[in-house]
Amino acid sequence: MFESSRKRRNYVAAFLIAFGLSILAVWKVGLSEGPMKWNPDSLRTRMVETQLISRGLKDARVLEAMRVVERHRFVPARIQRRAYEDNALPIGERQTISQPYIVAYMTEALRLKDREKVLEIGTGSGYAAAVLAQIGCDVYTIEIVPELAKRARASLDEAGFSQVHTRAGDGYFGWPEEAPFDAIIITAAPEKVPQTLFEQLKPGGYLVAPVGPEYGVQNLLRYRKTDEGTMVADTLIPVVFVPMTGETEQKNK
Questions:
Q1: Active-site annotation holder among 98, 125, 155, 162
Q2: Residue 211 pLDDT more than 80?
Q3: How do residues 228-242 score in pLDDT, each as one tens digit?
Q4: Domain spans of the chain?
Q5: CA angle, 51 as apex, 50 and 52 as ends, to 5°?
Q6: Beta-bridge partners for 140
Q7: Residue 98 catalytic?
Q8: Above 50 in pLDDT, residue 251?
Q9: Binning pLDDT at 50, 70 and 90, where does residue 208 land?
Q10: In a 3-state reduction of DSSP, which class is residue 210?
Q11: In Å, how far are 151, 206, 216 from 93, measured between CA atoms?
Q12: Per CATH, the architecture of 40-251 is what?
């Protein structure tokens, strides 16, 4: 009985030693190889496949732009590794970078053709402007928060999109000296789209915007301007966006 007990103790001891040595070997390999590499290129490819294509987005140019533009360059450094998650992320100044799907969906909804002139209201991080530029659009983008406008300009330059035209100002007034535009995209929600922006849209062009109150129902609408200048709206999907501030906010009070 004692012999059997001694054998069991020896077996357990041998097992623990072997187990400890294997853990030590794995630890040494980890030290030599360093931490697991973060691969944003692979994450972007996966993002396009699982978040965009799987939800029915089909525009090849939009999908390719989403594969190419490095979204992590447009978020704060502390959350860069979350850049390809399926959700919006904070970028400071009480603003967010939209969920990848929403950026792609709104871009596809513009029904862009080739090298069109696009006005964006609400630069935010600069990411959506970069996607439009990657498609080949001539992009003009306005941001009402000066600090965000400054950061977006720097991010666009660092990411290789220095051709994007940026301005700090109130998007309510648009960019009249560069009008008319082939398409207009608004990335904050007015309760009513400013008439000034409709006036800066070319006949046959599209304007895509989230519309509705801050704490009420918002829908993504697509307006088409007829040759006669009439705006025809289609309701696309329900959304939640930060409110459009500035002059449009004052007029809705």
A1: 98
A2: yes
A3: 999 999 999 999 999
A4: 1-35, 40-251
A5: 105
A6: 119, 165
A7: yes
A8: yes
A9: very high
A10: strand
A11: 11, 29, 22
A12: 3-Layer(aba) Sandwich (3.40)
